[in-house]
Amino acid sequence: MATAAEKIPQHLLLKAIDASHDGLVIIDARENGFPLIYVNHGFEKLTGYTSAEAVGKNFRVFQASDNHQSELAVIHAALADGEGCVATLRNSRKDGSMYWNELSITPVHGDDGTLTHFIGIQKDVTARIQLEQQLNTLTNIDPLIGISNRHHFDERFANLLSIAKRIHSELSVVLIELDYFKPYSERYGVEARDECLRKVGGCVAKSFVRTSDCVARYSAEEFAVVSFSSNREGLHQHTQQLCERVLLLNIPHLDSPHGVVTVSIGGIQRLPGKETTEQLIGLTSQKLRAAQLDGGNSVNVG
Predict the structure, then answer these.
(1) Which of 7, 138, 166, 160 is nearest to 77 (CA)?
(2) 42: alpha, beta or left? (left if phi > 0; alpha if psi -120 to 50)
C-alpha cells in the first residue's frame, strides 16, 4: 500500500521542500568526505551560496577557519558511525557574516539496510543564541575579569568530558594559581589586588583562545582551563609560555622571592575512561601542588 508521501506528485514535494525557510541538504554517505549532493532554496537564502557553489562540497566549508567547535566533533562522530545527531554551530555565510545554525542530521538507508545518505536540516537560531548569551553573561561570567565563573566552568567541563568519552578524544585540564597572593593582597590592598587579577586573568584567557577551550576564574586566586588536546608536550610548552607571560607583566611583589607576581601551573592530559570531573580536578590539583612546592613560577604537567 502506498504511503501518503508516495501519493503526492514528485514535483509538488520538491516545491514544498524548496518553499521551506529552513535549509535542507542531502549528503552522500557513500563518497569520501560526505559531499553535499542537493541543497534547497532555504539553504541558499540562509548561507548565500548557490546550489552550484555548494553541491560537491563538504559542510565543513561553512565553518571557515572556526573549526575547533566542540559540536563539530559530535557531528564527525555521528557521520562516521552512521548515526543521527543535533548540534548547534557557528557558521559563516558567503559574505563572511556569522550566524548560529542548529543542524539536525538523519541517516537514510537503502532497501538492503546499507547507509546511503544523510539528510540535514538547518535552522537559523542566531536570535535565540544571542538572547541566551546575554542571559549567560549575567549568570556565567565573573564580573571582575570577564571570563567564565566556577558555575559555568563546571557545566562546560561536564559537557566536554561527555563529548571526549564519546569520540575518544584526549582532554586537558589545567589549574593556574597566583603565587604568594595573600601577602600581596595584604601589602597592596583591594584595588591593586583586583587589577592584578584582571591582568593575570586576561593573560590566561589570551593563552587559550580556541573555541573548544573553556577558561574560568575557579576560585579567588585560581584559574582553570579545560580543552580538547592531543599533544602532552605541546601542553607543557603552552603552559610554560603562560608562566613566562605572567612574569613579563612585571607586576611588583615585594613579598615574593621572584620580586614580581608569578603563577604556578598544574595540568593533566587524559583519554578519559570512567573518571569524573571531580577526579580529574583532583589529579590536576596534585600537579598544581607539586609546582608550588618548586617555589612558584613553575609548571607541572603530566
Answers:
(1) 166
(2) alpha
Sequence-distant (6+) residues with CB within 8 A of 94 are 47, 48, 49, 53
Question: The whole model's pTM is what?
Answer: 0.64
pLDDT, residue 82, reads 92
Antiparallel, parallel or unpaired: β 263-270 and 299-301: parallel
Rounded Cα gap, residues 171 and 110, in angstroms: 37
CB 264 within 8 A of CB 177: yes
Cell of 276: 569524573
- The string of pLDDT tens digits covering residues 207-238 is 998 888 999 999 999 999 999 987 788 899 99
Over residues 133-188, the pLDDT tens digits come to 888 778 899 999 999 999 999 999 999 999 999 888 999 999 999 999 999 999 99
State which H helix or E strand residue 210 sits in. none
DSSP state for residue 62 in the 8-state scheme: G
Are 265 and 243 contacting, i.e. CB atoms less than 8 angstroms apart?
yes
CATH code 3.30.450.20 region(s) in the chain: 4-128
* Cell 562516521 sits on residue: 80
Start-to-end CA span in the chain (Å): 63
Q: Which three cell numbers stand for residue 227?
A: 580543552
What is the CATH topology of the domain spanning 4-128? Beta-Lactamase (3.30.450)
The CA distance from 95 to 93, in Å, is: 5
| CATH 2.60.40.420, domain 141-301, yes or no | no
